[in-house]
Specification:
Layout lengths: L2 H10 L8 E2 L20 H4 L2 H4 L11 E6 L4 E8 L12 E2 L9 E2 L3 E6 L5 E9 L5 H10 L20 E12 L2 E10 L5 E11 L7 H4 L4 E7 L3 E8 L3 E8 L3 E5 L5 H5 L11 H8 L10 E2 L1 E10 L4 E9 L10 H5 L1 H21 L6 H16 L1 E7 H6 L23 E7 L11 H14 L1 H11 L26 H16 L4 H21 L32 E3 L1 H22 L4 H20 L10 E2 L4 E2 L1 E4 L5 E4 L13 E4 L1 H6 L1 H13 L1 H4 L3 E2 L9 E4 L3 H11 L6 E2 L2 E2 L11 E5 L2 E5 L23 H18 L4 E3 L7 E3 H14 L16 H5 L12 E2 L6 E2 L5 H4 L1 H12 L4 H6 L1 H4 L4
Helix pairs in contact: 10-26, 12-13, 12-14, 12-26, 13-14, 14-15, 14-16, 15-16, 16-17, 17-19, 22-23, 23-26
Amino acid sequence: MTQEETRLAADRDRTAYWKRWGPYLSERQWGTVREDYSPNGTAWEYFPHDHARSRAYRWGEDGIAGISDTHQQLCFAIALWNGEDSILKERMFGLTGNEGNHGEDVKEYYFYLDNTPTHSYMKYLYKYPQQAFPYTQLVEENRRRSRQDFEFELLDTGIFNEDRYFDVFIEYAKASPEDILIQIKVINRGPEPKTLHLLPTLWFRNTWSWSIEQEKEKPWLNVSKITANFSVIEAFHSTLGTRWLYCDGIPNLLFTNNETNYERLFGVSNSSPYVKDGINDYVVQNRKDAINPSQTGTKFSAHYQLVIAPGEMQTVRLRLRDSQSSLNNGKTEILFGQEFESIFRDCQAQADEFYHRICPFSLSEDMQNVQRQAFAGMLWSKQFYHYVVYDWLNGDPVGPTPPAERKRGRNHEWSHLFNDDILSMPDKWEYPWFAAWDLAFHLIPLTMVDPEFAKRQLSVLTREWYMHPNGQLPAYEWAFSDVNPPVHAWAALRIYQIEQKIYGRSDRAFLERVFQKLLLNFTWWVNRKDIEGKNVFQGGFLGLDNVGVFDRSAPLPNGGYINQADGTSWMGMYCLNMLTIALELAKDDSTYEDIASKFFEHFLYIADAIDGVGEAELALWDETDGFYYDALHLPDGRHFLMKVRSVVGLAPLFAVAALEPKTLERFPSFKRRTEWFIQNRPDLTQNAVCLEIAGVKTRRLLVIAGQNQLRRILHRMLDENEFLGSYGIRALSKFHASNPYVLEVHGNEYRVDYEPAESTTGVFGGNSNWRGPVWFPMNYLIIESLQKYHHYLGDDFKVECPTGSGQMMTLWQVANELSQRLIRIFLNDATGRRPIYGGTETFQTNPYWHDLILFYEYFHGDEGAGIGASHQTGWTGLVAKLIQQHAEYGGDNPQCKLSMDSIVSRTS
């Protein structure tokens, strides 16, 4: 067992709280729904970036490369000033959803370089320009541009020309759960000596301004000790206890309060002269009266002024501890000398050891770098997420009465929701809130490194203080009632399987607990999203933003409703996942056999309904085209298929599961029920399931798309003129580049064009695009589905890949080919360029940038360049799993295929 696994075990067994401190600060707290108290839900405008330095947050904190405890009572991060900016750099800057020509977008360059599950070692890089940061230029130029134009990025301003910037590396290492070593290394990449003001900052989240009772227990910071070589700051909190921050050297010690500057923002007198932006005003404006001369408060910075020569590196060291007894009288060399360096070396080596344990297979150096940064991004994207909707709707005891509109506005149906957890974020700047379906995909790579954290994520999401009393899962804070794909049973099953495979543990208690809650969610889906009770589902938005002709989260312009191929397929997949879990649980409790039978039957009804065999009036399968489409039902009773070739029509592939013969023998009650269906309901089993035809090793297959449909879907999916791109499966067929789908309704034209990059329309905010780019979550599910089909069909079933090439592949080989195409997005090609960075020459040719990897939200459908949120390691972090799988199973070794049995089937 590695040292990191030992720490994880201690944390799991609650013998040591290794995860108490972690990277739990957001990259952006301003502009979020939970900080929005406006009448009409204008979150971006109510709390803009310009307010963030002066206004106390209600629900959380943000910062650069920051850490906090698990309840975010005490926070640490860095602030910077280059002597040119108009404000301290305390947080990342970006455009709001209304400022960007393609929606919100961070306009900074920072990188998650390393992290371990217990955060025993962490490394982060921020590139800070030496010239004045072009805040106004970025806003004005992006505002000027249209949706047909590229975004205007920070590199485009020329501010990094001649490498005139600082590389600021922030590292953390834990000597113990409560002894955190902090090392900040600054390199001047530019051609001239430059001064950098570095301000490591310690502060308390403001919990006292919203309640008289909390005001009585206000925490405090003050100077505990000053020596010739270091200073000690004491931090006291009534529930967290006392911590001491040791600061190497002789920095200037600056104190203020983390409280709103009402005078600056609202023209109202402050109750205290020392407010949140006091340190900013002291450093930038030289206002000596802005900081507390008594050296006490709730916000503190150690002010280091570093004069750094070209190419030189300077280092600042700090140490945050819960005890001072062993160090308070110590010497600097004990605090920050050889022991300090030794701890960092050990933690780095232990991180290397741990990741070799996770992926012990042969990988190129480039591939190792990508996987390591993917894991780092997953772990840096943890965030303390706090949002109590009842309090948010009703206001705080000492605050103003919220506008009446709020009681009828956003999230008013979710007053039970109480979030106070460390959660995995999609992107801590662009999407600093949990998203239910994104989270399911996060859990795949997270389980590889920390199964307990992954299980905790899914467990809290299904608990009564998250899940609605009616069984719906909360989507995301902008609209908790939006409907996301029901992928959480799949996630639970995969967590269970991956933990078994890597760690040899089978956590049936977790599986059963989540299963019980998902029964409620499944019932909600059946009752709410099957309008006619015919096993064809609507769903609405379903996470695919602008994929359809209409905004699927809004009422249709002509009335009526849409029967969705993806909504129905997701429910088929949901049934099969629940069936598989039920059979696993039935090994210890035979009552689950009956529940498995229920999901088996329900799946048959859904599988036949999507083809129009059951009670559905219109099949979603088009025999002429060999593809699945959404069906539009009009108020006058007419209905027709909307023939948009999109990932919606590929979703039926996700509903696939193989049953082992010994599974049927082990569960006689379940076997009798399946045999009854085969004999008595041939109308339900004729096209939907292959229960009477034995597959490889006499496995049985449950699917929506049978072999004929599978071949025809794959004919399109693997066509490079349709779905198959050089870097994965496109979300929309390239067929629509020259054949846009057009629908006229009441004189208005609605159309779907192939758009491989950013969206050119404002549908669903315009910041995401499902009309041509490559998206990792759907590609990952396609790969898994092909592996499951191969598990049943074996090597005799081959398809042409790419279509028209004459090259025949097994489904295993197709899955491997898709995996490699996705991985290639991040790797150096033959010319040494990474497709992910497209024509951005700085990333392609500058050695200080080239090996830094960003994990974008989605990717150009033809060229592979990263688009959208730049730090969405969340579901794009799936590349870490694909790399591991490629290293372990890639190729055509039969033993590899045999080993995959444990991954694609756990029903035996």
